[in-house]
Specification:
Helices cover 39% and strands 14% of the residues. By secondary structure, the chain is α+β, with helices and mostly antiparallel strands. Strands 17, 18, 19, 20, 21, 22, 23, 24 and 25 form a nine-stranded mixed beta sheet that branches. Strands 5-2-14-10 form a four-stranded antiparallel beta sheet, covered by helices on one side. Strands 9-13-12-11 form a four-stranded antiparallel beta sheet. The chain is globular and about 110 Å long.
């Protein structure tokens, strides 16, 4: 069987729809014709206009072919696109007609075809390749492998735009009464945003405005007489809204209910309006446009409006918008009721989490609307809008402070010490504590809008154990060296768990876990309030598609990774301690008998004495449960939180422009494996600095009071600035463009700053622990294609394509600590 290597990225059946009656060709215009040199040395353009059949139009060699050695495979063309094109052809024909039954039948097929059509063109594939720099670099040395990976990723992000399109306003306009007809381009799914003209950097090849922006409208000519226009509901209802802002609840993958037969079909465009449509289609084409009439493919000859003024042609009629949006309720046979608002959210916004944008011009000393706690002049003033955290919702920091205020009242922290909190910890208080946290984090929170963005500031994503005896050792002091540290909140959102495992439903089973979680939170909060730590919930709690994809990737990765508790002595020590603590939860008499049996023939101890000893042991252990018999009625959940996992740590680091920071040898092993999986080896950067960092111990103050004592000294701020410069240098350069003098300067600067900080900590006489830092800088960075795919699926538009820096923190003296953390909490 012959192999198809000439791939039509605009299907031939769709091209044929644009033929004039009785013709088998259309006018094909080359916007970038080849040039040649005449004999006299002058340069001339080649032919640019053709009367072309479909066999010669919108076609490229091996666009979808995959390669296995010397073999060429065309299964993507035959089987993948073959099926989609067949269903797409039926759908396009259906929506050019009036049969609503056919619309319903082919609704999903139409949008599935549109989504892959946007991606399958040379421009679409160039955009996709840009999202995966590894594939681009691989193409230079091994084009066959790079092509195979590109085709894999193309299929991996299918349906990327479908939710956005189907939940918006859908209109089909007609050119049947006009003499001018719609044209076809080599990138036929066109995105128009009146605030982003073709000259804008955001439209630089191969970019298009995101479909998630409020003012973005998607245009697709179904044929010469019909054009599909897809508009975001917010923009259609209020054309004066900010067109470059993201739409509300911009989720790429989620379940939603829509009417499959609601399309506005009442507008017949004039000649001028059709020409304006063609002007936009041509302006956003890559190289070729085609039409049934020669004059139609030159709309610039009759269109004189500015890019922004063209928007009137694409706005749907206001009196037809009643078909879209609104609240929806659906009752199912089992009695369940599904609610959905006009944006697809399944619960109403919580008013206490919303803010109004400032209505007057902000001054530099004003409180920054992003909720960072800083002044506007020191925070968002100099950031472009797309790199700011949300101004319309309570920030992550503000929510954590609201939660801390609620816990202060619940546990009367103004008058109670930790021992009193433990003694008075009732099941009602545990359930209330988790309900309070849940109230601050609706399951449809847009966490990406609340996270910091890659704005050039130094920050780190911490991944490791959230155990209170481990988190205080290095993670709390890390902001002194590495700027803002992002840590996952130890609290669970109860609704994300099965009902029989929720702390709001079964608080008794969370008595021990509640103590550990509460102590960890109390340790972190002073640094959260100071803006040194950003304490975030689990991103997977708000995006089930992200969670499913992330877990599938983690399962595939874990097959090749082997790791045991003994590989991490710090973690193993606290796990053993937790197991001994769990023994204290046994009924006192049973535990006393067990201790007598273990003592054997040693000198006997009275039962009453043992019971008193057990009670004393529980009081002295700051994490022990003081209530009687916690193991009865369901036992205790014992959670060891090693979060976020590798995939989520990479995801967060790229989304926020951060390095990865860990004190877990296991996470470090995973990062090393990420480098090993890459087809192209990365090159180490800043080798002298790496060596200097690991050569001598670094002091980490322990506890927030010690940290604040030294943080106020200006010399401590210099280390963050140094690492920021090293991060930026590594991210922006390649191995063949190094600056030896700059690298030597950074190394000398680190040496001076480290000695200064060590002296400062010694003079301050604060508790500190000596650590060994292993910091790795890599040109090309830590990167995994699966993470880039997760970011695309999550509607992230401004993220790093790799992580240029990572740091492992270990004890200089590896002996495990057994200190109680009480003194660092209150």
């Amino acid at each position: 069987m012959s192999v198809t290597r000439k791939n039509h990225y605009v299907p031939q059946w769709h091209q044929e729809r644009f033929f004039s009656p009785g013709k088998t060709t259309h006018f094909l215009l080359d916007l970038n014709p080849p040039t040649f040199k005449r004999r006299d040395g002058t340069v001339a353009s080649g032919r640019y206009l053709f009367d072309a059949p479909t066999s010669r139009a919108f076609v490229a060699q091996d666009l979808y072919s995959t390669f296995f050695g010397v073999e060429v495979n065309d299964e993507i063309e035959r089987m993948f696109f073959g099926d989609i094109d067949k269903r797409g052809a039926d759908a396009v024909r259906a929506f050019c007609g009036d049969d609503q039954g056919a619309w319903h039948q082919h609704f999903k097929d139409l949008f599935e075809f549109l989504d892959i059509q946007k991606l399958r063109t040379p421009k679409g594939l160039a955009w996709l390749r840009q999202q995966y720099p590894e594939i681009g670099r691989l193409g230079e040395v091994s084009p066959g492998i790079a092509q195979n990976q590109l085709m894999f990723e193309m299929q991996g992000i299918r349906m990327l735009n479908v939710t956005t399109w189907t939940t918006g306003v859908r209109e089909i306009v007609s050119a049947e009464r006009a003499g001018v007809k719609f044209i076809l381009s080599d990138h036929p799914v066109t995105v128009y945003n009146h605030a982003i003209p073709p000259s804008d950097a955001r439209n630089r090849y191969p970019e298009d405005p995101s479909t998630a922006l409020k003012g973005s409208q998607t245009l697709f000519p179904l044929g010469p007489d019909h054009l599909l226009i897809l508009s975001n509901l917010e923009y259609a209802k209020n054309p004066g809204t900010r067109p470059e802002a993201k739409r509300t609840f911009a989720r790429n993958y989620r379940s939603t209910m829509v009417s499959t037969i609601d399309f506005i079909r009442k507008r017949y465009l004039t000649d001028d309006q059709v020409a304006e449509v063609n002007f936009v289609i041509k302006a956003r084409a890559d190289r070729y446009v085609a039409g049934s009439r020669r004059e139609d493919i030159f709309p610039e000859q009759v269109v004189s409006k500015s890019w922004a003024d063209l928007r009137a042609t694409f706005l749907p009629p206001p009196d037809e918008l009643y078909r879209f949006g609104g609240e929806m309720y659906a009752r199912f046979e089992n009695g369940d009721v599904h609610y959905q608002d006009e944006f697809g959210r399944t619960e109403k916004p919580r008013e206490w989490l919303l803010k109004e944008e400032p209505k007057t011009r902000l001054l530099p000393r004003d409180y920054c609307p992003c909720g960072s706690g800083k002044s506007f002049g020191n925070c968002c003033r100099d950031k472009p809008a797309h790199l700011r955290m949300s101004w319309t919702e309570r920030s992550i920091r503000e929510r954590n402070m609201m939660f801390m205020d609620a816990l202060t009242q619940l546990f009367e922290l103004g008058s109670n010490d930790w021992d009193t909190i433990r003694r008075e910890m009732t099941d009602d208080k545990i359930a209330q504590m988790y309900r309070l946290y849940e109230a601050l984090w609706p399951l449809e929170t847009d966490l990406l809008a609340l996270l910091p963005k890659p704005d050039g500031k130094m920050r780190s994503v911490y991944t490791g154990s959230l155990h209170p005896k481990l988190i205080m050792e290095f993670a709390l002091g890390a902001p002194l060296y590495f700027g803002e540290v992002i840590i996952q909140n130890p609290f669970l959102i109860s609704r994300t768990l099965q009902k029989d495992k929720r702390p709001t439903e079964h608080p008794r089973q969370y008595r021990g876990e509640a103590l550990k979680t509460l102590m960890t939170f109390f340790q972190l909060m002073p640094l959260v309030e100071a803006g040194l730590i950003t304490l975030i919930p689990d991103p997977c709690d708000f995006d089930l598609h992200l969670r499913d994809q992330m877990m599938a990737m983690a399962r595939a990765r874990s097959r090749t990774m082997k790791f045991g508790p003994s590989d991490d002595p710090r973690l193993d020590a606290v796990m053993q301690e937790d197991m001994r603590r769990m023994m204290l939860n046994m009924p006192k008499d049973a535990l006393a008998e067990h201790m007598v049996e273990m003592a054997g023939d040693d000198e006997p101890i009275g039962m009453d004495t043992l019971v008193d000893l057990i009670e004393q042991m529980k009081v002295e252990d700051e994490l022990a449960i003081l209530q009687d018999d916690p193991l009865t009625k369901g036992g205790q959940f014992e959670l060891m939180k090693m979060v976020p996992n590798f995939e989520m740590a990479m995801y967060l680091a790229q989304a926020t422009g951060a390095q990865i920071l860990t004190d877990s040898p296991f996470r470090w092993k995973e990062l090393d494996a990420a480098l090993a999986r890459r087809h192209l080896g990365t090159n180490p950067a800043l080798i002298q600095l790496q060596s200097e960092i690991s050569s001598t111990p670094i002091e980490f103050p322990v506890g927030h009071q010690a940290i604040f004592h030294v943080f106020d000294d200006p010399s401590f701020r210099e280390m963050e600035s140094l690492f920021r410069a090293a991060f930026a240098y590594t991210a922006a350069r390649t191995a063949d463009k190094v600056k030896p003098n700059f690298e030597a300067h950074l190394t000398a600067r680190f040496r001076r700053q480290r000695d200064t900080m060590k002296s400062l900590i010694a003079r301050a006489n604060v508790p500190a622990v000596a650590a060994r830092l292993t910091t790795v800088f890599r040109f090309g960075g830590f990167q995994d294609n699966t993470i880039n795919r997760l970011l695309l699926m999550s509607s992230s538009e401004h993220h790093l394509h790799s992580v240029p820096m990572a740091t492992l923190i270990e004890r200089w003296d590896a002996a495990p600590r057994t200190d109680n953390p009480k003194s660092w909490v209150f």
